[in-house]
Write a structure and sequence with these properties.
alpha/beta; 16% strand; TIM Barrel; eight-stranded parallel beta barrel; 10 helices
């Protein structure tokens, strides 16, 4: 049975590009903390240094469409970088979307005690997308298993998550979900600590080669980036490392060894 044309998923140009890129660091900008002009300046620097894409993400947000549409448009006008969104869903709407974004990370929070954040939010997003924007404006959907390591009361209060244990049996249960349900990506995150490199290595050893492994949380040095890449991560996200006046110096130290873009992702939704 063919899916309804109204619910057909966007073509996977971004996903194909992410799979083809060489592993490396990625910057995450909080658009509800970083002013638009500063975000554009950072995005231009990222583009010049060969970063593959930029992620706009925040745990909290208000008036999403009002703020995000011009925010995304300014970054897209100034750079060639694909823009990915990573925001939690809200009941009654699903994941927030905005015209101009190339892709949106849709996390299934397997560590949540609320099944809305485990899987129902994805279905709600699919059902509400046709009424929120025209089909040609839809971002590509990246289906993601998201796991939080270490204490994180902020995310726990908002999304019902509990810290994921690092025992092999518990990790394997989550990996089995990622494998059996065809997720595109696994996102490992720690707000106050670090995801253990051994956990990253265990996921990489069991995931399919085409499943993207993303790690973030308290990444502030090239050594940390290198440790995660050596453990098998495809992308290592950093955010707070650039929240100071001398961010250009830090950014140059975190930059990829060489440009990692491939031609078909450079043209995504431009």
């Amino acid at each position: 049975m063919e899916p309804s044309p109204d619910l057909a998923l966007p073509s996977r140009h971004v996903l194909a590009g992410l799979r083809d890129l060489r592993p490396g660091p990625v910057h995450i900008i909080d658009p509800f903390k970083v002013p638009p002009a500063e975000a554009v300046e950072k995005a231009v620097a990222l583009d010049e240094l060969g970063f593959p894409f930029v992620i706009l993400a925040s745990t909290d947000y208000e008036s999403f469409e009002t703020r995000m549409e011009p925010y995304v448009a300014r970054i897209k006008a100034a750079t060639s970088l694909p823009v990915l969104l990573h925001f939690p869903p809200r009941k009654g709407v699903g994941f927030p979307l905005v015209a101009g974004a190339d892709a949106v990370i849709l996390p299934a929070l397997l560590g949540s005690q609320d099944d809305y954040f485990v899987w129902k939010s994805f279905l709600e997003t699919l059902l509400t997308m046709p009424g929120r924007m025209n089909r040609e404006q839809w971002p590509e959907l990246l289906l993601t298993v998201a796991l939080t390591f270490g204490e994180d009361r902020r995310t726990g209060d908002l999304l019902g998550t509990v810290p994921v244990g690092t025992g092999t049996a518990q990790l394997d249960r989550h990996i089995d979900v990622a494998l059996n349900f065809g997720f595109h990506m696994v996102y490992l995150y720690s707000r106050h600590a670090h995801v253990p490199p051994g956990v990253v290595r265990h996921f990489r050893n069991r995931l399919r080669p085409d499943q993207i492994l993303f790690v973030s949380g308290n990444v502030r040095s090239r050594d940390r980036v290198t440790a995660y890449l050596d453990a098998g991560a495809d992308y290592v996200g950093f955010a707070g490392a650039l929240e100071h006046d001398d961010w250009r110096t830090t950014l140059s130290g975190l930059a990829p060894a060489r440009p990692g873009l491939v031609p078909h992702i450079r043209g995504a939704r431009r």
